[in-house]
Write a structure and sequence with these properties.
2 domains; RNA-binding; alpha+beta; eight-stranded mixed β-sheet; BirA Bifunctional Protein, domain 2; Rossmann fold
Length: 425
RNA sequence: GUGGCCUUAGCUCAAUUGGCAGAGCAUCGGAUUGUGGCUCCGAAGGUUAGGGGUUCGAGACCCCUAGGCCACCCCA
């Protein structure tokens, strides 16, 4: 451990150079959330461990090995082990939906949030212990249209962020009526070739056979010959899946069917989807994912209510944007206020007046030589400098165009209009 | 949780066989008795990630720890 304080493992500081891209991504997410008529919610960053165990599943990786436990300063050992930082947002949103009786509101309900998620995993580029997701959830909408709508929304998000080469992977893993048969077929199939499975897969074969398909080390021949969930769908699930596909086709949304896409969280039913970006052949190419969870509300003690949602990783979206050379949004023209005299009161008054007029102002509070102040202004990226000095009369200041190297004396009240009129903003 | 490669100034990197820890960029100041970017000059910036060992002597070699990256695992 270094003597100087360091950020905890797997976390990082996001500095101004990078926050420019963050602003763009966040504003796209906010704007789309609003345009698609989602309503903003916030839930706690930590919840009871039991909530995640009951929703994501005891055998899911996030519960089994990636839970970030929170210890209280006081209390018994048991009490201190009771909470965990949220590894995903759906459980908290569904918990809030049930707790506040939101089912009485006219549905379907559409929620969104942007927030930090936590997974105690081994860090790597694009994989952090604290990361940020944009999450959208729809509760109480059983029809296939919302499935297609969410996938279209996610693809539009990537497009609006400027990311290209994003592919939607799609699958249906059925529901309580048809999945048991699929599960049985998987067990029967893999049990015969158990000696060709990894240790992990052999264990999963007993406790959660669908996730054998998740295993990237699975022999390609075995994977190709494995039972496919869509061949086992019951009639309602098959109709739902067919409808989702034809809706996506009708929208012109491109996707590929991925028979091995079963998702790591147990609450998913029917539609599952993930978004991958081209160019990262190894890991961290998954930018986001989601699916339908028609049994989750009931499993957590609420009335039977369908649900569907996605979580998109903003860190990875930004990483993809940076790799694709996408420019961050430009700031508005910056005006530096510098002083030819040491009269700081006059300088600060000018700053305030300009800000009231809507100008973006960076003041120089030093009494350095004017040349130094102008140099600092130019280095800070200022397009203009307002020089507050004694040689000007009354309310007048000098407005200097730092790019052109030209300046003029004019009344303070005319500065904002002059900048706006130059078209250089 | 497993394996591999790494860590020298704020950043990018040098340092011969184990022999005085350096450069460029960035920062600050001066040239500039108050109008910037260029140029020139100068200053500051280091317990070489942390700890231990070998040695007359370690940035370099050995061990431990921490962190980063990569491949697994899994996902966002």
């Amino acid at each position: 451990m270094a003597r100087t304080p360091a950020a905890p493992r797997g976390t990082r500081d996001i500095l101004p150079e990078e926050t420019a891209l963050w602003r763009r991504v966040e504003s796209v997410a906010r704007e789309l959330s609003d345009r698609y008529a989602f309503e903003r919610v916030e839930t706690p960053l930590f919840e009871r461990v039991e909530l995640f165990a009951r929703s994501a599943g005891e055998t899911s990786d996030v519960v089994e090995k990636e839970m970030f436990r929170v210890a209280g300063a006081k209390g018994s050992e048991e009490e201190r082990a009771e909470w965990a930082l949220r590894p995903e947002p759906t459980a908290g949103i569904v918990r809030a939906y049930i707790e506040h009786g939101l089912h009485v509101q006219p549905g379907p309900l559409r929620f969104w949030l942007i927030g930090a998620m936590f997974r105690y995993d081994r860090p790597q580029a694009g994989r952090y212990r604290q990361f940020t997701q944009w999450d959208c959830e729809v509760l109480g909408d059983p029809g296939p249209m919302v499935d297609a709508e969410l996938i279209e929304l996610a693809l539009r998000f990537y497009a609006d962020c400027g990311v290209t080469g994003v592919t939607a992977h799609l699958n249906s893993i059925g529901d309580g009526a048809c999945r048991p048969a699929f599960r049985e077929a998987l067990v029967e199939y893999f049990a015969r070739v158990e000696d060709r499975l990894t240790d992990d897969s052999r264990r999963r074969l007993r406790i959660n056979p669908l996730r054998v398909l998740d295993d990237r080390r699975l022999d390609p021949d075995l994977a190709a010959g494995a039972p496919r969930s869509i061949d086992f769908l019951c009639e309602p699930c098959r109709q739902h899946f067919d409808a989702v596909r034809s809706l996506l086709d009708g929208l012109g949304c491109r996707y590929v069917i991925d028979h091995r896409l079963v998702r790591g969280l147990d609450y998913y039913t029917r539609t599952t989807f993930e978004f991958f970006v081209a160019g990262r052949e190894g890991q961290q190419q998954a930018l986001g994912g989601g699916g339908r969870y028609d049994g989750l509300v009931e499993a957590l003690g609420g009335r039977p209510t369908t649900g569907i949602g996605f979580g998109l990783g903003l860190d990875r979206t930004i990483m993809a944007m940076a790799e694709q050379g996408i420019e961050p949004p430009r700031d508005g023209a910056l005006v530096a206020v510098v002083g030819a005299t040491d009269d700081l009161v006059a300088r600060l008054r000018v700053c305030t007046a300009l800000r009231e007029a809507g100008v973006r102002v960076r003041p120089d509070g030093s009494t350095r030589k004017l040349g130094k102040q102008l140099e600092a202004a130019a280095k800070a990226g200022a397009r203009w400098a307002v020089i507050v000095g004694e040689e000007t009369a009354g309310d007048s200041v000098v407005l200097r165009d730092l790019d052109a190297g030209e300046q003029q004396e004019l009344p303070l009240a005319g500065v904002a209009a002059s900048i706006a009129g130059s078209g250089a903003a």
